Amino acid sequence: MSDYAASQIRDAIIEGKYRPGDRLVEMDLSTQLQVSRHPVREALRRLHREGFVAVRANRGAVVADVDAISILEVYEIRAVLGALALRHLLLGRKGPSPEYLKKLERLAEK
């Protein structure tokens, strides 16, 4: 469920439905997405790590000031990871090792 929530919120930010500085209220998002607050909370944490959401003292989660270059970088990384997962699936592998995924995450954060 948190994957679904993160995807929906991320897409809404990219499409401009949520503007930089807009508050992202867990209760409102859970109602809109028809999920409980826990998946929304996890989704907001993930989006914070990805740079789409900022957490402000006394304000909670707000949409970060994301530029087009950053959005393209995120989608390029997701495309590469998706292709890698498909390759492993087609070759009958279970997928990349946790160590390899952590290495990719560290590279993506740079």
Structure description:
With 110 residues, the protein is mainly alpha-helical. The protein has two domains: 62 residues, Arc Repressor Mutant, subunit A, CATH 1.10.10; 42 residues. Helix content is 64%, strand content 7%. The chain has five helices and two strands, in the order αααββαα. The protein has a two-stranded antiparallel sheet with strand order 1-2. A hairpin with a 3-residue loop joins β1 and β2. The longest helix has 23 residues.
List the helices and strands and how they pair.
Layout: H1 2-14, H2 26-33, H3 37-50, E1 53-56, E2 60-63, H4 68-90, H5 98-109
Antiparallel strand pairs: 1-2
Helix pairs in contact: 1-3, 2-3
Keywords:
110 residues; mainly alpha; Arc Repressor Mutant, subunit A; two-stranded antiparallel sheet; 2 strands; 7% strand
Q: What is the gyration radius calculated from CA atoms?
A: 15 Å
Q: How many structural domains in the coordinates?
A: 2
Physical arrangement of strands within the biggest beta sheet: 1-2
| Strand percentage | 5-15%
Q: Number of helical segments? A: 5
**Mind describing the biggest β-sheet?**
2 strands, antiparallel
